[in-house]
Design goal:
The chain has 15 helices and 17 strands. With 488 residues, the protein is an alpha/beta fold. The chain has a seven-stranded mixed sheet. Helix 9 runs parallel beside helix 10. The longest helix has 28 residues.
Length: 488
């Protein structure tokens, strides 16, 4: 039974005794007061840097799978999934059992980088999941607990191995919030990183899209490397995302990814693939590099590999392992609970073929969402891979660019309005993209067909409401009260 079945009983149900009705009303009022008090205290005490809490004023108290219940008794379908961390959704039984087993065993929870049976099981399962050609020569470095720590470690690794310092990264990239990771991310302003054009169809940097646009991106990269007057020295490495997540859910073309591998390999430039958000089945393959078939030199992994708990690693080709002992360390490298949860998650995704499931469900969701673009002019583009999906909201009255049939201007206002309308309907979604104009869906890989339909219904209804408001019209919604519980 899903935990959300214990939701608050509606007040004033037919045939309910007056006393019970009053008690129900009092309980609901106390729940709302507790909810509002927690939010007020968060606003008063926490940093102005907080993000998700601003757009999602909810107080989660219970969760299972796709469903979250708030302190005020409202229930939501969660398509944020910890920014892609929860491959199996909230509190999956296999993950909870793995954590309980370690807790009950009396095993130490903090061991720095010492070998333990829990770590051995994790690394064994991790290497089993890696692309075979990569795994046969791989080494793993446990880093600090976040993906950005692994990115920093990867940069340090390739700089030590090559003796060079510069890095290549791509426009729109997001690799974390520490200094080096930010330098490689698209929003950086003071950088030591050469920025390359990332190919995309909808807002192609060359204005043409398709295979030709991707080819121009590859040629630009070659020109920078081979032109002695480009002003860009040979870098220590290149880092790329197989699908840009925070950049707006932009999948890299497989042929272009193979070209990047050819370009870097021919010039002895280590290729770092950031699989922090795309890994563990999210895109319809266990690792997103498997779509293109390339073998990178370095893979950066975090989020889902910890089974909802903090864990990050760098996996790399053995000949890059030039570090001296202690050259890269961290107090919290040995998170035993995260390793146990991660082992359970990796094994469950592999054994239950959830990557293939993500490909199938994601394709169906993309097909249905494609109809929104034809129905509502404010939906400029629908794109994604597997269960990593985005809808770009645009100003339907804005001038197209760069050609008369080009895309309309991005509309962060409409995207934020869709996010608010989704929340009213009991659906949690994230925003991303260059101007926060892309509504993102990152549901757990365990999402059922019925749940996927409920998500799409609520999203479509939210887009309809926003579109109607933008046109000064009012249209009735599909479902009923805000925050209504859907399939569990």
């Amino acid at each position: 039974m899903a935990v959300t079945e214990s939701a608050v009983v509606p007040v004033g149900a037919p045939g309910e005794p007056e006393g019970a009705r009053d008690a129900g009303a009092g309980a609901a009022e106390r729940a709302r007061a507790a909810h509002e008090g927690i939010l007020r205290r968060q606003s008063a005490r926490e940093s102005a840097a907080r993000t998700y809490a601003r757009a999602l004023p909810i107080v989660p108290v219970r969760a299972r799978g796709l469903t979250i219940e708030g302190a005020d008794g409202r229930r939501y379908l969660d398509c944020l999934s910890g920014a892609g961390t929860l491959a199996l959704g909230h509190n999956h039984p296999v993950v909870l059992e793995a954590i309980r087993k370690v807790l009950d065993s009396g095993a130490p929870l903090h061991v720095l980088d010492l070998a333990t049976p829990v770590k051995d099981a994790f690394t064994t399962e991790l290497f089993r999941s890696l692309p075979p050609r990569f795994a046969e020569r791989a080494r793993v470095q446990f880093c600090g607990p976040a993906g950005t720590d692994a990115v920093e470690a990867a940069f340090k690794l390739v700089r030590a191995a090559t003796g060079r310092t510069g890095m290549f990264a791509f426009t729109g990239a997001y690799h974390g919030m520490t200094a080096g990771a930010l330098e490689a991310s698209g929003g950086a302003t003071d950088v030591r990183v050469a920025r390359l054009p990332y190919p995309q169809d909808y807002r192609c940097p060359f204005g043409i899209g398709g295979e030709h646009g991707a080819e121009l991106s590859a040629r630009w990269t070659e020109s920078l490397l081979d032109d002695s007057k480009s002003g860009v020295p040979l870098p220590a490495g290149m880092i790329l995302e197989p699908v840009q997540g925070e950049g707006g859910v932009i999948p890299a073309p497989d042929a272009w990814t193979r070209r990047m591998r050819e370009i870097t390999e021919a010039r002895s430039i280590p290729l770092i693939v950031d699989e922090v958000q795309t890994g563990v089945g999210r895109t319809g393959a266990f690792w997103a590099v498997e779509h293109s078939g390339i073998t990178p030199d370095v893979m950066v992994l975090s989020k889902a590999i910890g089974g909802s708990l903090p864990l990050a690693v760098v996996v790399y080709r053995d000949d890059l392992d030039v570090w001296e002992p202690g050259a890269h360390a961290g107090t919290f490298r040995g998170n035993q609970l995260a390793m146990a949860a991660g082992t359970a998650t990796l094994a469950y995704v592999r054994e239950h073929r959830l990557a293939e499931r993500a490909a199938t469900v994601g394709a169906r969701m993309l097909e249905r969402l494609g109809s929104l673009a034809s129905e509502f002019p404010c939906v400029g583009d629908v794109r994604g891979r597997g269960l990593m999906i985005g809808l770009e909201l645009v100003d339907p009255e804005g001038p197209p660019h760069p050609t008369p049939d080009g895309p309309r201007p991005a509309s962060p206002e409409l995207a934020a309005a869709v996010q608010r309308e989704c929340l009213r309907r009991g659906l949690i979604v994230e925003l991303g993209g260059r101007r926060s104009s892309v509504v993102r869906l990152l549901p757990p890989l365990t999402i059922s067909d019925e749940q996927a339909s409920a998500v799409l219904d609520r999203l479509a209804d939210a887009v309809s409401a926003v579109s109607a408001a933008a046109l000064g019209e009012r249209r009735p919604g599909r479902d009923g009260a805000p925050g209504a519980a859907g399939p569990e």
